[in-house]
Write a structure and sequence with these properties.
six-stranded mixed β-sheet, globular, alpha/beta, 17% strand
Length: 234
């Protein structure tokens, strides 16, 4: 399964009033493994950034003046995201900007080029209703360091989002059961194997440490010992 974590930086908040995309960052994940095959482009928006937006991303007009325009990168972007699941934090914002850029150039909407679009902000709100669910808040919740994030950057934020997503969906993968007959699972080649043949692999030190990070984040959420901590102690 190929997943792409995508983030943009923009000149402001509203693409329908002339704000433009100035940076795109994409991070590729295949079968829950980062591949290092990323996509990152700065874009000349042909306009100034709003002061508020500039304070967030720090990308000045002078810096962007010699960068390619969106028309020069759209085909490459479409090829990179083709048929993948696109994962975005607050997807309506980024997709709204991309749709306007695509529309200006006569392209179909962004979603027409990909397999599906998933919104981690919506997922986080369902997991943690009433909590802060910004990317920074999720990094803190899952013990992911973002100390190097003094300004927003599309590629950096996409990388952080990939880490958050992996932490947020940890435990999602499970054995596929053959409900048509005796209970079983699938091996790496897709062939059925008996449950009795499954090896129990003990976690290594790194995995135990990662597990402890998750337990601490759960303890912090409930301001005490989480249920999983209590089960561990019994």
């Amino acid at each position: 399964m190929r997943q792409i974590f995508l983030d943009t930086e923009t000149t402001g908040l509203n693409p329908r009033t002339g704000d433009r995309v100035i940076e795109i960052g994409c991070v590729e994940l295949v079968n829950r493994q980062l591949t290092g095959n990323n996509f990152h482009r700065y874009i000349n928006p042909e306009r100034e950034s709003d002061p508020g937006a500039l304070a967030v991303h720090g990308l000045t007009s002078d810096f962007l003046s010699d960068k390619p325009k969106f028309a020069a990168v759209i085909a490459e972007l479409c090829a990179f995201v083709a048929n993948a699941e696109i994962i975005i934090h607050n997807a309506p914002f980024d997709v709204g900007f991309l749709d306007v850029e695509f529309e200006k150039l006569g392209y179909p909407s962004f979603k027409e080029h990909v397999n599906k679009i998933s919104d981690t902000l919506q997922q986080a709100k369902e997991l943690y209703p009433g909590k802060r669910n910004s990317l920074d808040a999720l990094c803190e919740r899952y013990g992911i360091s973002n100390a190097h994030r003094t300004l927003h950057g599309a590629l950096l934020d996409a990388e952080l989002l990939a880490e958050v997503y992996l932490a947020m969906t940890r435990g999602q993968d499970s054995l596929t059961m053959d409900l048509g007959g005796a209970a079983g699972a699938l091996d790496g080649s897709g062939k059925a194997i008996a449950i009795a043949d499954i090896l129990v692999v003990q976690p290594n030190e790194a995995e135990l440490a990662a597990h402890e990070v998750v337990l601490k984040s759960l303890d912090k959420e409930v301001k005490g010992q989480s249920l999983w901590r209590q089960l561990t102690l019994t």
